[in-house]
Structures are given as structure tokens and as C-alpha cells.
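subagent[fold] <- orchestrator: predict structure for attached chain, return C-alpha cells only, no commentary.
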Amino acid sequence: MKKFICLFIAASLIVLPGAALATDKTVADQNTTEKGKRRKSSEHHLKFEDCDKENKGALTFEEAQTCFPRMSREKFDAIDTNKDGAITKAEIKAHRAAKKKHKKDKPLAD
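subagent[fold] -> orchestrator:
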């Protein structure tokens, strides 16, 4: 009986590290895309071109909301500075720069 227990423990020590490595690889595989790049945690890292279904260089509210489900109408309207009902890459870039500048200029609380 003691030999069986010793063999069982020895076999477990040999098999378990391999199983842990296989599990780690599976998790790593889940965190990569088809192209082998790490997947970003935020949906904001989708490509603009992937969202622009009509290839017109601008996103309608429906296209933007499809790619960015948390996009509210208020946020869309804030990005759409020329109020044409669509947002362009330039408008998104300008909105991000304005947000970044606002954070930088904001005084620290005492």
C-alpha cells in the first residue's frame, strides 16, 4: 500500500507541472488575436476602418455604437464638433487631445 501511495505522489509531481503549463498556454492563447498580437482590454482599440462599414471616412452614431457599445449619444455629439451626424478620425483625435490637455491643466487638489 505504501508503494502505491509513493508511486501516486511521484506520478502526480510529474504530471501536475505539465498540466499547469498547458493551462497557462491556453490562457495565453485566449489573450492573443489571430495575428499574434496581444488583445487590448478596452474596446477603444478597435480600428476605425473596421467600424466604418460604408467606407466613407466617418462613423454614424449606429456604427460607432456597434463598435463601442458604451458610446452614448451625448459623447458622440461631443466628439462630432461640426455637427454633421458623423465622427471622423480627426474629430476623435481632437477630442482625445482636448481631454488629455484638460487633465494636464487641471490643478491638483490640496
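orchestrator: received. Logging for downstream: The CA atoms of residues 27 and 45 lie 21 Å apart. DSSP finds five helices and two strands in the chain.
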